[in-house]
Specification:
Largest sheet: 2 strands, antiparallel
Order of helices and strands: HHHHHHHHHHHHHHHEEHHH
Shape: globular
Radius of gyration: 21 Å
Strand content: under 5%
Number of strands: 2
Strand order of the largest sheet: 1-2
Helix content: over 70%
């Protein structure tokens, strides 16, 4: 049944991806950002030079050697972030521990730890999730005990109580009590949590909550989170705007490049910028927070080339995606559509 559901969803998504779409207006600032993405891209799909090995693995080895020679905060934290992106949560947590012991109230370090904990919980088995979730909760409770106004800790615990099952200590009442405290301590975190609690039942209200959160603090991760949600809802104009803001702050943000290509493929807008973004993405590390986006990036390029009428490039992109992941439904359906079109 699951396989049938996945195939139906892929067919529906492919139909959307292949359909024509009217261009949506974006401001001049976003257009300038997208022009810069195009200017920095490889010449084309044939000229794409994908790394043979995982660049993050080589980067990890380089940082480990550097750390062995000189154990300092910057190198250790850089290594922890690479481990986070490779999905090696437990090793990252172990390396991060001395930094948190030296600076237990550093909310930036706490956020890195929370990212690692989320990866650990997500990748663990059933019983492992319970253990990892308990450790996560204990760490955030300790942060809050040291500083009752710690917005990072309040948001962490509110999310835990909201999402954990009752058997693991989940509690809607506890989540909302913490949310009330968060409104004063951290308006950004408060509105991010409010957006999550709205679910998908009120698109306008959730979109407004994201806007308020980002107005309170223009955090890149929050803008990426908002962009991904708007893509899911088909609200592509807002997604493009958030992605432009991220890339304006950090032109090489890997997730923003991938999501820009995905948005272009799904919406039919900004196809040149979407192609350029995915070519740039594929020229570097494609594993982010433990997930490899390489095959999906090729598949979305296939849809972009299909929309542009370049059947040869679309076929090559779909074939490459399927060579990387022969079960990738959107690539299989895109390739089948090309075959049906002759």
């Amino acid at each position: 049944m699951t396989g049938v559901k996945t195939t139906v969803m892929a067919l529906a998504l492919a139909s959307i991806l292949w359909s024509p779409s009217a261009a949506r207006a974006i401001d001049d600032g976003a257009m300038a950002v997208f022009d810069a993405v195009i200017d920095a891209a490889p010449a084309g799909y044939r000229q794409l030079d994908e790394p043979d090995d995982d660049p993050l693995e080589a980067r990890q080895e380089q940082l480990e050697a550097r750390l062995a020679e000189d154990d300092n905060r910057d190198t250790r934290l850089a290594l922890v972030r690479v481990l986070r992106d490779r999905g090696k949560a437990k090793k990252g947590l172990k390396l991060l521990s001395p930094l948190l012991e030296a600076a237990p109230n550093d909310e930036a370090l706490q956020q890195v730890r929370n990212d690692l904990m989320v990866t650990w919980v997500r990748n663990a088995g059933v019983f492992g999730k319970m253990r990892a979730g308990g450790r996560f909760k204990e760490a955030c409770e300790a942060d809050l005990a040291r500083d009752p106004e710690n917005g990072t800790a309040l948001l962490c615990l509110a999310r835990y109580y909201e999402n954990a099952p009752a058997v693991a200590g989940g509690s809607q009442d506890q989540a909302r009590a913490l949310l009330d405290r968060l409104e004063t301590a951290d308006p950004h975190g408060y509105w991010m949590m409010r957006a999550e609690l709205l679910g998908d039942r009120d698109i306008d209200a959730r979109s407004a909550a994201y806007a308020k959160a980002i107005a309170a603090r223009p955090d890149r991760q929050a803008m990426l989170f908002a962009a991904k949600w708007h893509i899911k809802q088909g609200v592509f104009g807002d997604a493009f705007t958030y992605l432009a803001r991220v890339l304006d702050q950090q032109p090489d943000n890997r997730m923003a490049l991938y999501q820009l290509g995905r948005t272009a493929a799904r919406s039919g807008d900004r196809l040149a910028a979407g192609e350029a973004a995915l070519l740039r993405f594929l020229a570097g590390p494609t594993r982010l927070r433990g997930d490899d986006y390489r095959a999906r990036a090729h598949a979305y390029l296939g849809y972009i080339y299909g929309r542009q009428g370049d059947v040869g490039a679309a076929k090559r992109a779909f074939d490459r995606a399927l060579a990387l992941d022969d079960k990738l439904a959107i690539a299989a359906e895109g390739r089948a559509r090309l075959a049906r079109q002759g």
